[in-house]
């Protein structure tokens, strides 16, 4: 399965993004989204990037808190 679709989650993400952009779930939209998803995953596989693993997850909550604080500050400044 990895040879046919090397990055399945990326292909699904492209499909969902396409369906959100066209605001339709017709047969044509699904077909074009599936083709775009497979092509995008194929292009990424052709680049030959090494697979990455998630590293330390401990800093993520602190970084998200910083982002939320900055968003609130920016909205209050406007």
Rounded Rg: 18 Å
Share of helical residues: 55-70%
Tally of extended strands?
0
What percentage of the residues does DSSP assign to strands (E)? under 5%
Low-confidence stretches: none
End-to-end C-alpha gap:
50 Å
Alpha-beta content class: mainly alpha
| Chain-averaged pLDDT | 88
Main β-sheet description: none
Number of helical segments with 4 or more residues: 3
Query: What is the element string, with H for helices and E for strands?
Result: HHH
Shape field: flat
SSE order and pairing:
Elements: H1 8-22, H2 27-47, H3 60-77
Q: What does this entry look like structurally?
A:
The protein is an all-alpha fold. The protein has three helices and no strands. The protein is flat, with a radius of gyration of 18 Å. It starts with 7 loop residues before the first helix and ends with a helix. The mean pLDDT is 88.
What characteristics describe this protein?
78 residues; mainly alpha
Please sum up the structure shown.
By secondary structure, the chain is mainly alpha-helical. It is 69% helix and 0% strand.
């Amino acid at each position: 399965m990895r040879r046919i679709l090397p990055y399945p989650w990326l292909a699904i993400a492209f499909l969902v993004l396409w369906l959100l952009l066209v605001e339709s779930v017709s047969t044509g939209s699904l077909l074009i989204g599936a083709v775009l998803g497979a092509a995008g995953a194929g292009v990424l596989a052709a680049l030959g990037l090494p697979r990455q693993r998630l590293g330390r997850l401990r800093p993520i909550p602190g970084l998200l808190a910083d982002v939320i604080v900055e968003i609130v500050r920016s909205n209050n400044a406007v």
